[in-house]
TrEMBL record:
Full protein name: Mitochondrial amidoxime-reducing component 1-like
GO molecular function, one term: molybdopterin cofactor binding
Record InterPro entries: MoCF_Sase_C, MOCOS_middle, Pyrv_Knase-like_insert_dom_sf
GO CC term, one of those recorded: mitochondrial inner membrane
Chain's gene name: LOC115543882
Pfam families (alphabetical): MOSC, MOSC_N
Transmembrane region(s): 17-35
Domain called Molybdenum cofactor sulfurase middle: residue spans: 47-164
């Protein structure tokens, strides 16, 4: 008799046990193993995807989309991949909203194979999405070497004028053949095989609407979820419930939580004005979202808000998808 099939059948029928004569001990063992296996795959509904945000340009304006491909290296929508474009100084060192807050006002989009740059007070700049004859630059992102295809002099002049820089800025694009950065070089909690292009550390950041609502209850002026630049926004859950989610299933995508997102001065940049306050909401977060003492070596004094996930199974995520927690 096939005891494994018998065991699974028993479990599926509310764990009713069917005793068999002969080999009963083996059947009991199989039942135990099969039940533990089923429990490990148990799905519990924990929320719903309310927003998907792709940020093609690091520190640039996020694009809200209804559907995105979820790859190991992050989200993709049409021709745009999350944080695959980067502003650099002429020596290749990255420039983010921490140094240039007005970057949050720059929208990088695509239209029929053309790349479009837009910003307040600027004429739209269009350029080819692929510029294979442009030089490849050696860049530095958080102390790590990575390449980027230069997007040309017109883009450089556009950015330099918009950012009112005293030095020149250039736009670079990470291409599929280039070697990505190892997340573990930035944060040791990531495995050595996890890689990203220009994100700070992880390929997917998730945050709940309820957590933002909880924070707004402590602020004099509300902030929006865009302030925290997540990829996946979840509704229909409690505040900070996402802190406890280890394995998630969304559509056919499986995600694994690695660590919390330690927040910095960038959260004080208003995404609507590009003005940095250097105060809120960071000061309030520091007052009630510090890590446990046992994790101080990881997060230092950075308050925790949102969670970094890696992609264990690729696929499509859509707004409205149910978010399931897998396992206990």
């Amino acid at each position: 008799m096939d005891f494994e099939k018998l065991s699974i059948a028993a479990i599926a029928q509310n764990k009713k046990l069917y005793l068999v004569i002969g080999g009963a001990g083996a059947a009991v063992v199989c039942l135990g193993l099969a039940w533990r296996s089923l429990r490990s795959r148990e799905k519990v509904r924990v929320g719903v995807v309310s927003q998907l945000l792709v940020h093609p340009l690091k520190s640039g304006k996020g694009i809200s989309v209804a559907l995105a491909e979820c790859h190991h290296i992050g989200l993709k929508h049409g021709e745009l991949r999350d944080r695959h474009w980067l502003v650099v100084k002429e020596d290749g060192h990255m420039v983010t909203g921490r140094q240039q807050p007005r970057l949050v006002l720059v929208a990088l989009t695509s239209d029929g194979g053309r790349l479009c740059l837009n910003g307040p007070g600027m004429e739209e700049l269009q350029m080819p999405l692929q510029q294979p004859h442009n030089p490849i630059m050696d860049c530095r992102v958080f102390g790590t070497d990575i390449q980027g295809r230069d997007c040309g002099d017109e883009a450089a002049r556009w950015l330099t004028r918009f950012l009112e820089g005293e030095i020149g800025y250039r736009l670079v694009h990470f291409e599929p053949h280039m070697e990505p950065r190892k997340s573990a070089d930035q944060e040791k909690l990531f495995s050595q095989d996890e890689k990203v292009a220009y994100p700070d550390v992880g390929p997917v950041m998730l945050l709940s609407e309820a957590s933002v609502g909880d924070l707004n209850g402590k602020l004099q002026k509300d902030v929006t979820v865009e302030r925290f630049r997540p990829n996946i926004v979840v509704s229909d859950c409690n505040a900070f419930e996402e802190d406890s989610w280890t394995e998630l299933l969304i559509g056919d995508v499986r995600l694994h939580r690695v660590m919390s997102c330690g927040r910095c001065i960038f959260t004080t940049v208003d995404p609507e004005t590009g003005i940095i306050s250097r105060k809120e909401p960071l000061d309030t977060l520091k007052g009630y979202r510090q890590c446990q003492p046992s994790e101080a070596e990881i997060y230092k004094k950075s308050p925790l808000f949102g969670q970094f996930f890696t992609v264990k199974k690729t696929g499509i995520i859509q707004v409205g998808d149910v978010v399931y927690r897998i396992g206990r």
